[in-house]
Amino acid sequence: MSNTGSGTGTGAYFDELVTAATAKLQGEEVLLANLAGERTDFIRLNNNDVRQAGTVDQQKLSVDLIEGKRHVGGSINLTSDRPMDEARLTALLGQLRDQRRLVPDDPYLMYNTEPMSTESIKTGNIPAPDAAVADIRSAGHGKDLVGIYASGDTYNGFANSLGQRNWFQSSTFNLDWCFYLRTDKAAKNLYAGFDWNDDAFARKVDWSAQQVAALARDPKNLGPGEYRTYLAPRAMEEVMSLLSYYGAFGKRAHETKQSPFLRMLAGDATLSPHVSISENTAGGVAPNFQSAGFVRPDAVDLVINGKIGDTLVSPRSAQEYGVATNGAHSGEYPESLAIAPGSIPTNGVAEALGTGLFVGNLWYTNFSDMSACRTTGMTRFATFWMDEGEIVAPVNVLRFDDTAFNMLGAQLEGLTDEAEVLLDPSTYMERSTASARLPGALLTGMRFVL
Q1: Are residues 29 and 174 in the same domain?
Q2: Lower CB count within 10 Å: N or C terminus of the chain?
Q3: d(Cα 297, Cα 4) in Å, to the nearest integer?
Q4: What is the spatial distance between Cα 167 and Cα 117, in angstroms, rounded to a whole number?
Q5: Where are the alpha helices (DSSP H) in 266-326?
């Protein structure tokens, strides 16, 4: 849904605080305000028992006080006590006003001066915490289930002294868990999204049970070489996160030639025609507006059939390079990354792989040569050798070293016909709103060096 105003109690309170603060501005000052909050139930499990449970209800208000080209920002945590929060916000504005006299002009300052108010509230079908715990513990009966379950609302608001109001709220769940066997042997899985589905969860539990049973077999050692490989969505997420955070899709990185996609920018390489990548804001959990008040489009096509498309342009880059902003985050990396699915049946991946490596997770990913988009990393948790679609044995840890132009290009046989919703399980300081929708990838060959 999209319309003006904010229909929640928290949104109305945010509106009232900013309206009161606007009345206290001096001269030509402009105020930008951002609210980030959550109401989240957390449950930690170990050995299939609840070890910790609690609820987090928090709101953080960040403001930027602008006069001309000079500005200074600060933040406070809200208490929901109106007189206390107004007094603390007024004091913060006074401090920022004093600090602003000491800072120089910012040549790349850019904020939205044409108010566009929006509201988006995404509700989901999420079980109550006690019902979720009952389902999870039932699934882990007889096994050492270890993990964390988080569910509830995350919300963001933007408001400015020019009258703009934006609100984005999303209800999600995220179960990040594994069946632990012994030492470094565990079958890791993730179930996340907007609507809990018992059948979908049961399929994930069944696959993890098959994996943990296979982990009890003697492991197989593989030497360096190229192997036919299936990268599950979580493994794909590791590769895509590395590319994203190091400027594969950002305007500034492209302009300064610090992008891992340099060869694509020079016209010397492409990805596979099977690959189309977008910033899918409409399908994500991150807000559909930016901290300077620019509203984001539903989608930005970053790679189209293997070729470079648009870039993510933050307001500062827009000002510096004289182009239009599309409301990107200041880091210009995707917050709602999506790769379009392919044609390989998701429930027939094992048969499509045949004989080769099934890689469920990667970690310690980094660049071995960023200018060539060459990446390296380790297999993690359950990686299996498959023969004619059946698990033969777990594979001892391997290190890969290959370029994205191979993995997502020349060596890519195809993508699965379903994209999995992957929510960032990070809860440091606050629950993350980053997400991805990724299919699995079948590679005719992936290069392993150890």
Answers
A1: yes
A2: N
A3: 17
A4: 8
A5: 315-321
Nearest to 408 by CA among 319, 253, 276: 276
Whether 2 is in a domain gets the answer no
- Which of 164, 185, 213 is at the close of a domain? 213
Rounded to two decimals, the pTM is 0.94
Nearest C-alpha neighbor of 447 from the set 200, 128, 229: 229
- Residue 346 CB neighbour total at 10 angstroms: 18
Q: Which two tokens stand for residue 71?
A: 């500005």
Which domain range does residue 283 map to?
Answer: 217-448
Domain count, the chain: 2
For residue 178, which amino acid is it? C
> For the chain, what is the radius of gyration of the CA atoms?
24
Residue 160: partners with Cβ closer than 8 Å, 6 or more residues away: 18, 30, 31, 32, 33, 111, 112, 115, 293
Residue 403 covered by a domain: yes
Per-residue pLDDT in tens (0 to 9) along the chain, 450 residues = 333 334 457 899 999 999 999 999 999 999 999 999 999 999 999 999 999 999 999 999 999 999 999 999 999 999 999 999 999 999 999 999 999 999 999 999 999 999 999 999 999 899 999 999 999 999 999 999 999 999 999 999 999 999 999 999 999 999 999 999 998 899 999 999 999 999 999 999 999 999 999 999 999 999 999 999 999 999 999 999 999 999 999 999 999 999 999 999 999 999 999 999 999 999 999 999 999 999 999 999 999 999 999 999 999 999 999 999 999 999 999 999 999 999 999 999 999 999 999 999 999 999 999 999 999 999 988 899 999 999 999 999 999 999 999 999 999 999 999 999 999 999 889 999 999 999 999 999 999 998
Q: 235 and 88 in one domain?
A: no
